[in-house]
Design goal:
This protein is mainly β. Helices cover 5% and strands 43% of the residues. The protein is built from 2 helices and 32 strands. It has helices spanning 13-32, 391-395, and strands spanning 40-44, 49-54, 72-81, 93-101, 104-109, 117-122, 128-137, 145-153, 156-159, 169-175, 181-190, 206-214, 217-220, 229-234, 240-245, 259-265, 269-272, 277-286, 292-298, 304-310, 313-316, 327-332, 338-343, 350-357, 360-365, 372-378, 384-389, 401-407, 410-413, 425-432, 438-443, 449-456. The strands form 8 sheets. The protein has a 4-stranded antiparallel sheet with strand order 1-32-31-30, with no helix packed on it. The protein has a 4-stranded antiparallel sheet with strand order 2-3-4-5, with no helix packed on it. The chain has a 4-stranded antiparallel sheet with strand order 6-7-8-9, with no helix packed on it.
């Protein structure tokens, strides 16, 4: 067991029983004072001997790295330097995917002959999808290590292969409890406007295709009329959400070619979500009811609007913040509540937003004096997590931020809800599950990223050793200063992913 995780082992049953009266008292106090947040237990995932661990954002802010069972998936550095320094896997160390539960991190392993792997998403029942090197080199890209989509289940790793029509690279983005996996794969057709995996120092690429994998068979889902497509998410019923070029020639504001979004269903095939008249529509989340949220440029491509798509129809989520125009949705729960961002008057600063229903927009505010914020995920309880951003980074398109939690009408710096003196500064929360557990990454005193899991000290998590079950008086909590070394992470919404040559296409905000 990692020595940094030993302190997080579940308390003895005696201690758990003694904690019950405290938890019930905390539950009653929470009901009486809803703006007093819980404390959180911080689990630092640590590493496999190298400097960093983290999560892989697969192009959608609400990507699932922790499920409702509290199982967390990510990747961690080993102590070995990546031998392919011209094409580093993630951060120029050999990385291994991990699974963690209860603070115990387990190495998920790699493909035979491969060096590195990374977990991207986890299903409700614990299946994990991601990507791994297979030990071969891409014949179309000399010296470039091949990457394959993989699935971890029943203690083993499965290479999902590539498309039947050919190609040498693939990466999984999501998996559901039925073992259906979606992602991207490169074929062998040259494409000067490829929606390619980001290949550092590599010129040129081939078409990127959205795939659906089930029971050993990988299927190309097609496109919306263009050459390239990406499958980003799959829900429990098996609906797939993704992006596609809609044309081979129409210029686009987000990419060289106009980009649309789709929902694919086995019986119906690929359905175009539609647009608000602009050249870019970017779906960001899909719930189990088949509702999709995201943002779409309006006619003229000067502004974006948040949308909700359901039953074949796209509609503006509505509202604005203080005279601003641009909005965008990043996440949706199964109740249809959406979270995202909205620009203020002047289209310069932006705040995290919540839509409890169409036309009902709520400004979630920012932490302290931060002028900007953006929501990343929302759970069934309506709790929202995201990034609060300082002035320098907000107006210069910089990336440093601090993690926030919004609940019951109030926003909190997550760094004030964890034990004082914690070794990590919480920068980016990616996921919040329905139990209120939050996964993301923070930085240590040296600026190294570490994946973290926050467990609320509440009645649903009894007996956690080191948990403070009293409620926090947010008005008396001092702010936690950011460390000197905070890595780049958060851009103007829609959010970009952590810099890596293996991310699916970055979908940036419209320029202003």
């Amino acid at each position: 067991m990692n020595k940094n995780l030993a302190m997080y082992i579940t308390a003895l049953p005696l201690l758990a029983s003694l904690a019950i009266p405290i938890q019930l008292t905390a539950q009653k106090a929470k009901q009486d004072h809803p703006q007093q947040p819980n404390h959180y237990q911080l689990l630092d995932m640590g590493t496999f001997g190298g400097p960093q661990s983290s999560i892989v954002d697969q192009g959608v802010p609400s990507g699932v790295s922790v499920n409702n069972g509290g199982v967390f998936a990510g990747y961690a550095d080993t102590s070995r330097r990546d031998p392919f320094q011209d094409f580093c896997f993630l951060d120029c160390f050999v990385d291994h995917a991990f699974q963690s539960q209860g603070g115990v991190m387990n190495d998920l392993g790699v493909l035979h002959h491969g060096l590195s792997s990374a977990a991207v998403a986890i299903s409700a029942n614990g299946l994990i999808a991601g990507f791994a090197q297979n030990g071969e080199f891409d014949p179309l890209l000399p010296g470039f290590p091949e990457l394959r989509a993989v699935l971890w289940q029943n203690g083993g790793i499965t290479d999902l292969g590539t498309l039947p029509e050919g190609g040498y690279e693939s990466a999984a983005n999501a998996v559901n409890s039925s073992g259906q996996v979606v992602g991207v794969a490169l074929n062998e057709t040259p494409d000067p406007n490829s929606l390619t995996l980001t290949l550092n120092n590599v010129a040129g690429s081939t078409q990127v295709r959205a795939f659906f994998w089930e029971e050993g068979v990988m299927q190309d889902l097609g496109t919306l009329g263009g050459t390239d497509a990406v499958a980003a998410l799959i829900n429990e019923p098996g609906q797939v959400m993704g992006w596609s070029y809609t044309s081979t020639t129409q210029p686009g504001a987000c990419f060289p070619i106009a980009l649309g979004s789709f929902v694919w269903e086995r019986e119906k095939g690929m359905t175009n979500i539609g647009s608000f008249g602009g050249t870019c529509t970017v779906a960001q989340d899909l719930n189990n009811r088949g509702q999709v949220v995201g943002w779409s440029l309006v006619t003229g491509d000067k502004f974006s609007r948040a949308f909700l798509w359901e039953h074949g129809s796209i509609q503006d989520l509505g509202g604005s913040l203080g005279g601003g125009i641009s909005t965008g949705a990043a996440a949706v729960n199964d109740a249809g509540q959406a979270a995202g961002f909205g620009y203020l008057a002047g289209e310069y600063l932006f705040h995290a937003t919540l839509w409890k229903q169409v036309g009902q927009i709520t400004d979630l505010g920012t932490v302290g004096s931060d002028p900007c914020s953006s929501a990343k995920a929302i759970n069934a309880k309506g709790q929202v997590v995201g990034d609060s951003i300082s002035l320098a980074n907000c107006v210069t398109n910089g990336d440093a931020s601090r993690a926030f939690l919004w609940e019951d009408g109030a926003i909190f710096d997550l760094n004030t809800l964890i034990p004082p003196g914690s070794a990590l500064y919480l920068v980016h929360p990616q996921t919040i599950n329905d139990g209120g557990e939050i996964a993301g990454f923070g930085v240590d005193g040296s600026g190294n990223q570490h994946a973290f899991l926050l467990i609320p000290c509440d009645e649903n998590h009894p007996g956690n050793e080191g948990c403070d079950y009293s409620l926090l008086n947010a008005s008396t909590v001092p702010q936690v200063p950011a460390p000197r070394h905070v890595p780049s992470r958060t851009q103007r919404p829609p959010q970009s992913r952590r810099s890596s040559r293996y991310h699916i296409p970055g979908l940036e905000a419209p320029s202003r």
